[in-house]
Design a protein that fits this description.
There is one protein chain. By secondary structure, this protein is of the alpha/beta class. Helix content is 29%, strand content 23%. It has helices at 10-14, 23-34, 86-99, 136-139, 155-162, 186-196, 214-219, 231-236, 248-257; strands at residues 5-8, 39-42, 61-64, 70-73, 78-81, 104-109, 112-115, 132-133, 146-150, 166-171, 176-181, 204-208, 222-225, 239-240. It has a six-stranded parallel beta sheet with strand order 3-2-1-12-13-14. α2 runs parallel beside α9 (248-257). The longest helix has 14 residues, at 86-99. It starts with a strand and ends in a 6-residue tail after the last helix.
Length: 263
């Protein structure tokens, strides 16, 4: 079935292990655009982290940031921002430090990344910059788009304590815990965006690889798991394609849309 809308995760899906969009995937995106099929990029990344040289994702479609915590709808002319209230941020922060006084906690406030510890986060977070440093008290005073915990081994305790108040997911092989508003999810953001254009979730083909794609897979008409995806996603998927390093997105789109690498 030819999809009416395509939703693409970035890391582990459209991007290869070098965090690049391959030539073949780029050609597939160009063909999708030429077909007039709307594209939504749904990522855990913040706005500052979706620049790929001369490749501009916004020229292909809409970008959903922070797993649905922040996005803009051009149809309704609204920016949607789902944040965690500062009072709850403070409670989560205090709890994490009570469990592990050395916890690596940082927060995202729209497009600002902030922490209280002077550490080199670049390797653990796979980024080229470090967060802004501030005091613990100031950090707890923000309404946050996302709370991040790196290399923290108490995921289940956190879910038991706060799972009814925020969305908590573990990604990157358990090395990263992401905490967001209950309203923030890829599936909620995609639903809002496509319904504003007159589409239904059954019209959507989505691609993904990790736990933050699971709700989207359950909501979309067609779900494509990457060959490198977690097992839970593969079990939910309509189909499994090749890995992100073997152009899995392009291979599937070429077949479904009837396009070739040379066309």
């Amino acid at each position: 079935m030819k999809p009416k809308v395509i939703v693409l995760d970035l890391d582990g899906t459209l991007l290869n292990s070098k965090k690049q969009i391959s030539k073949r995937n780029m050609l597939a995106l160009q063909k999708v655009k030429a077909e007039g099929i709307p594209v939504i990029f749904a990522t855990a990344r913040p706005p500052r982290a979706v620049n790929y040289g001369d490749i501009h994702l916004f020229s292909f479609g809409t970008v959903v940031f922070y797993n649905g915590g922040l996005f803009r709808c051009d149809v309704t002319n609204r920016e949607i921002h789902h944040s965690i209230a500062k009072e709850l941020v403070a409670s989560i922060f205090d709890y994490c430090l009570s469990v592990d006084p050395e916890a690596n906690i940082s927060v995202e406030v729209k497009d600002k990344w902030i922490t209280y510890k002077s550490l080199d986060y670049r390797e653990m977070m796979k980024t080229t910059t470090n967060p802004i440093i501030t005091s613990k008290e100031k950090l707890k005073g923000y309404d946050c788009t996302k709370i991040l915990l790196t290399d923290w081994n108490h995921f289940e305790h956190l879910v038991t304590k706060f799972g009814d108040q925020v969305t908590i997911i573990s990604t990157d092989d358990g090395k990263l815990i992401q905490i967001m508003s209950l309203k923030a999810s890829k599936e909620n953001a995609v639903t809002y965006l496509i319904e504003s254009q007159g589409y239904k979730m059954s019209d959507v083909m989505c691609f993904g690889d990790d736990f933050n794609d699971l709700g989207l897979f359950q909501a979309c008409g067609i779900s494509i798991a990457m060959g490198n995806a977690i097992q839970e996603l593969k079990e939910t998927a309509t189909e499994i394609t090749e890995t992100n390093d073997n152009d899995g997105v392009a291979i599937l789109l070429e077949r479904v849309l009837g396009i070739s690498q040379k066309s």
